[in-house]
Amino acid sequence: MLFEAPNWTPGGELIVNGNGRLFRVDDGLVEIELGGVPDINNDHVVSPDGQTVYVSAADGHLYAVPFTGGPGRRVSNDRGPDFRHYLHGISPDGTTLAYIGLEPVDGRRITNVWTVPAAGGADVQITDDEHADDGSEYGPDGKWIYFNSERAGHAQLFRIADGVAEQLTDDERVNWFPHPAPDGSAVAYVSFPPGTEGHPADIDDVRVRLLTPDGIRELATLFGGQGTMNVPSWAPDSTAFAYVAYPVGGSAALTNSL
What InterPro entries does UniProt report for this protein, alphabetically (predicted)? Predict the structure, then answer.
């Protein structure tokens, strides 16, 4: 089984997905009962109080599931049969989910940043363009939403608030999935080789990087892909984050202490 996308819970546990299911990493793997939710992908977040896991399912919708297991509740709205929801973030107060909405338009896959109340309610579209956007995640102040976008050419990191986007990286590598630390001190992200299209499943020379006020720190180089670090994965105290190196001669879910 290929495990992907580690979240670090407020209580200090790690959770990962694999084969459409969700697991706690607790001296082994303990499956979290999804309560009738369809198979999930590797887009999931944990509520700030640790009581709820929000997941993206194979039917294209978002669901809320009790962390201890139990019946799932659909959160997302019907926006047409071809619209897909991909979850990446939750606001610091736990009230709002940030997701990527994908909609086929004239044979193209259009992605934009959206939000929806965690309790259910009306969606809000944050970006409205034809650039490829992904990885939308709230910053610790609840104001900025961080994301990656091809609006600058190939994928780079951005953040947006009040309709104004700021570019955070500008280099030759293809940068994805920004994860701001809970204390606001840094942004962890994955960086693919120049020329990479999309966020492939298996690729060499994936780099885990840290964007700080002093510049970019290179932390690890590994064989990985789009499930290496595509969800919020910081420890609550901002001293470490989790990522996955894919199994080449062995496998491991790894953490990096800062």
Answer: 6-blade_b-propeller_TolB-like, WD40
